[in-house]
Task: structure prediction
Amino acid sequence: MSPDNVISAVQSAIFTVIVVASPPLILGLLVGILVSLFQAVTTIQEPTLAFVPKIIAVLVAIMAFGTFMLTTLLEYMQSLLRDFPNIIIPR
Result:
């Protein structure tokens, strides 16, 4: 297994993780910012108010982008299994 193959495999794995994790994280971040602004304006400092909407937003993002996320993971796994002989035994 050559270093080039290892670097390529790790790069594609990291890129796939970033692409798959981005939709829920971005939506959770946006909801967190909105809740923080709401708390700052109303001076309500309830910890549950900051936590529950983010969980709901992440669950909604997973439901909305689940097909995209699963398709991306399946494509990555198919390419990894297809290239497995070339990774193990470089040509």
Summary: The chain has three helices and no strands.
